[in-house]
Specification:
The complex is a heterodimer. Chain A is built from eight helices and two strands, in the order ββαααααααα. Chain A starts with a strand and ends in a 6-residue tail after the last helix. Chain A is mainly α. Chain B has one domain. In chain B, helix 4 packs parallel to helix 7 and helix 18 packs across helix 20. Helix content of chain B is about 70%, strand content about 0%. By secondary structure, chain B is an all-alpha fold. The chains are: A mainly alpha, B mainly alpha.
Chain lengths: ~160, ~450
């Protein structure tokens, strides 16, 4: 890398400007990040496939992206019912979250919670569903403890 | 200032914060604290970050909470607050170094003392709000920028400082979105300063700073693009704040509901002159994702401002007064009865309230002459002025409350210490003296606007 000597017109100091190695390094990092994002990009059909048969957390993630990236189709009752009957617990729980229930009053979810009894899943589902941030609801320390203890043996 | 004094003051500040944490006990989460917890729990459960309450917050603070919850379970809240207490020592140390650099050792000592006893900042170490973490990343970056400005004859270190500052600012944007456009302002300032060398040096240095910040922020920006199909560099919180602040109704989270509801009776003159007649409210966007909602709310807010320029201008005066208020979330927590136990004992509560009100007033009143009296051979004053102006405009002109001041409260502490130590002398020349007096008159006017409400809050909690 070459050195450029630059003389200030104001003070007369001379500085040496190293030929942009840092710029190139940072630019390379940025390009790497862009390429990684491009490689990891999932189009709508891929997300749909992931939702149907992906690993547990990726199925919930696919549902999250499908209900946020435009053009968004608010899920209808039938879709919600299917999700609630899924064998994947994370999918069932995601349908209870504030992000998913923002489209319409969660009537289907509420009736589903009734069938869960007092299991750990029921505790978590209630936590996700009855926390309504836009309605000013708050998480108490007791809620937090109940949520964290939901999967403890003997709960 | 001698290292042992810095250490002693940092120890004092951290000790006071630790005592505050123990005395405050288990505070119930409130407002955004609840949302951050919800996001953190969802992150741990589902393995990805979501959004909440019409906000897409940057992920840094929920990430800290998620990591804490994973590691400590139901003890996580105390552990996270303890981490906040400990990292606040970094803030104290940087505040002293900055004051020492700009004004000398006496100012550094005073700045350390002000920081150690500043209850609004102390409060944030025992709340679940991201302010302390944000300052821990923002302040060292700001210090490096000041150093870069003041030492133009050290080109070999200059790039290191700029890259370090850029990386830390990038990280701070992963905690709070407020400074996202400030990066552009700083880049322009860097470019302008280095034009003195040459156009090429100007571009090179400004780009170096932006690339460094961008390298940290870009993965998160790209993730947002993947999830929402929209550009959201750090988050999408502006729209919701515009909804609260540029609308027909008045809201201020520094006041308890009882004071807010009686505002027309408590402060009739200001209510009539600045907030009435209020145009009809505009409705929050119902767009289908949070990034679109935020953009839509900004558009609606701007349309509202175009339709009712008189009302918006008048109400900005109130927002400015709310920004410069002597109140803070620390006082607010008393008014909302969030504290229990020892902190509510009148013997402790009353002196704390006096300090909590008096110190922000002293700092606000001293910061302005500190700025005008700053002797600044390196030209760092332009950075200080633009930083203060940016954060003031980015917050107070949208929605005013004490919390929005927190991002630059440490800078105000440094400037105040410069004035109080006698290192900044604004009255050496006539324009400086007039500017200083003018600033005090404006500040007194802003305090006057909110005086009845502040007294009403104090009456409630005294």
């Amino acid at each position: 890398m070459h050195m450029t000597r630059v003389r200030s017109s104001i003070s007369g100091w001379t500085i040496r400007l190293k030929g942009g190695r840092l710029h190139i390094l940072l630019l390379a990092i940025l390009i790497g990040e862009l390429l990684a994002a491009r490689i990891n990009h999932r189009a709508q059909p891929e997300l749909q496939a992931l939702l149907d048969s992906g690993p547990s957390r990726q199925r919930a993630y696919a549902l999250f992206v499908l209900t946020n990236r435009g053009p968004v189709q608010p899920p209808d009752r039938e879709t919600i019912r299917k999700l609630l009957q899924s064998d994947e617990v994370l999918l069932r729980e995601w349908t209870m979250t504030a992000n998913f229930t923002r489209f319409a009053p969660p009537l289907v979810q509420e009736s589903h919670i009734g069938s869960l009894g007092g299991s750990g899943e029921a505790v978590r589902c209630r936590f996700w569903l009855y926390y309504r941030p836009a309605g000013g609801s708050l998480i108490t320390l007791a809620d937090l403890k109940r949520f964290l203890d939901a999967d403890r043996p003997g709960f | 200032m001698a290292g042992r004094w810095v250490l002693a003051l940092v120890a004092l500040g951290v000790g006071v914060r630790a005592a505050g944490l123990l005395l405050a006990g288990d505070l119930e989460p409130y407002g955004d604290e609840s949302h951050y917890l919800y996001l953190a729990l969802a992150w741990n459960r589902f393995g990805f970050y979501s959004d909440c309450a019409q906000y897409l917050w940057p992920p840094g603070y929920p990430f800290l909470l998620a990591a804490g919850l994973k590691a400590f379970g139901s003890h996580a809240i105390f552990a996270i607050k303890l981490v906040q207490v400990l990292i606040s020592g970094v803030n104290g140390s940087v505040i002293m170094r900055l004051a020492g650099r700009l004004f000398g050792p006496r100012a550094a000592f005073l700045a350390g003392l002000l920081w150690a006893l500043h209850l609004p900042l102390i409060g944030f170490t025992h709340y679940l709000w991201p302010e302390t973490l944000y300052l821990t990343l923002f302040l060292p970056a700001f210090y490096w920028l000041v150093k870069w400005w003041q030492e133009p004859d050290r080109p070999s270190a200059a790039n290191r400082w700029l890259v370090g500052a850029g990386l830390l600012i990038g990280l701070s944007l992963l905690v709070k979105e407020a400074g996202v456009l400030w990066c552009a302002v700083v880049a322009v300032l860097i470019f302008c300063r280095d034009l003195g060398w040459s156009l090429r040096v100007g571009w090179s240095r400004a780009l170096l700073f932006l690339l460094s910040a961008g390298a940290v922020l870009t993965p998160w920006t790209l993730r947002n693009f993947e999830v929402y199909g929209r550009l959201a560099p750090a988050g999408a919180t502006l729209g919701q704040n515009v909804y609260w602040g540029v609308n027909g109704f008045y809201l201020n989270f520094d006041y308890p509901p009882s004071v807010l509801a009686r505002l027309p009776q408590i402060n009739p003159w200001v209510h009539r002159r600045l907030l009435q007649p209020a145009p009809p409210n505009w409705e929050r966007s119902a767009a289908l994702n949070v990034v679109d909602q935020s953009a839509d709310n900004v558009r609606r807010g701007l349309a509202f401002a175009r339709r009712h320029p008189g009302f918006v201008l008048r109400s900005r005066l109130k927002k400015l007064a709310d920004w410069a208020t002597p109140l803070s979330f620390f006082v607010r927590h008393y008014a909302w009865q969030r504290y229990h136990g020892a902190l509510t004992d009148p013997v402790i509560r009353r002196p704390l309230l006096v300090i909590a009100i008096a110190l922000p007033m002293l700092i606000l009143a001293s910061a302005w002459p500190g700025l005008t009296g700053l002797r600044d051979p390196g030209g760092a004053r332009s950075l200080l002025i633009w930083t203060l102006a940016y954060f003031l405009a980015a917050t107070a002109l949208i929605n005013g409350m004490s919390r929005y001041r927190t991002c630059i409260e440490p800078v105000l502490i440094v400037l105040a210490a410069g004035f109080l130590s006698g290192a900044a002398r604004p009255w050496g020349h006539r324009p400086g003296l007039l500017g200083c007096i003018g600033g005090w008159v404006v500040l007194a006017g802003l305090w006057g606007i909110n005086l009845p409400e502040v007294l009403a809050v104090l009456k409630l909690i005294w």
